[in-house]
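Protocol step 4 of 6: structure prediction from sequence.
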Amino acid sequence: MIGYYAHQHGSGHCRYGELLANYFRDDLTVFTSYDYQFSEGVHYIKLEDENPDGSTYQQNQVEPPHYLHYSPVGQKSIQKRSLQLLQGIIDRNIKLLIVDVSAEIAALARSSSIPYAYIKLPGNRGDKGHLAAFQGAVFIIAYYPENFEDAGTPEWVRNKTIYLGFQSRNTSSPGFRKAEKIENLTVISGKGGNENLRKSLPAIVRRFRNATITVLGEFERQPEFPNVQYKGFIEDINACLSHSDLIVANCGMNTVSEIVRLKKPFLAIPEKRPFNEQNSMAFHLVQNGLALDIEGINQMPDSEILNFPKSKIEDSSMDLETFKILLMQNLKALPTIPQKFRAVKAKKSYQYV
């Protein structure tokens, strides 16, 4: 049995847990504090959260050691969460815990003699907390291509990482319409903060003044723009995207993974995040011809924008299947999986989407 710890900050971690659960079926259990509506058939255990609960004493607080990021002293909810997690691991005979993400859960697992794999997010993760989590893991997983790795990432971390590429919940692309100019534009805003996206909207409206602009998700209405429609969160986002000539969004992992598979022009607006996460992702998207930046759209005619993306990506569903097979075959030799994964991948012929 495999365990998947999904961090409580944002729904993205649970979405990846759900994606892996759909591959591993009854062999995977998700542990999370986030209030997420999992699809039918996903096994999960709801944990206590790490939000302040009033149980700590200010005078007892001391600086955490270098291998931790967030570790208040004496918080009851975190104590209960640790107990729930460890008890669930024992009860379900978990052979590997995938940690997405938490330096504290990684330290708990290692000190409890539980093998864990650590999810590596984009950006500069060279701080002591991340490096300790990487060092203690039997291997590392990245949900992005290897050529998107941060230039400052140590070689030993790269060698220990299984790069699964962009993983999407949708295996098929929405319908396409042949366009000669940009008439329909969709802006996608998540719940994690959209300051840069919001500030960019006036420039986007000016550039595409004759287009219909649809804003999805959490976004403060700006009534001075008559061609902007605010629809909030909708059930069938693909139906809306299928009619879009250009998609505008931030550069969170889930958002990017879904958009790049659509093979539509993508204007990437990175938000400020720890460890330069979204700026790093935006840089690599633009460098690899998969997205445009805000400066680029002002220098290009519609016809050139509509030729994006300029490159294709590997069909990473093959990588996930390879990972599943290797993991189930090597539960007694977990640190060998990255090397075996690279060997299998080198022999495979990939389709590009």
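Step 5 (inspection) to follow. The chain has a mean pLDDT of 92.
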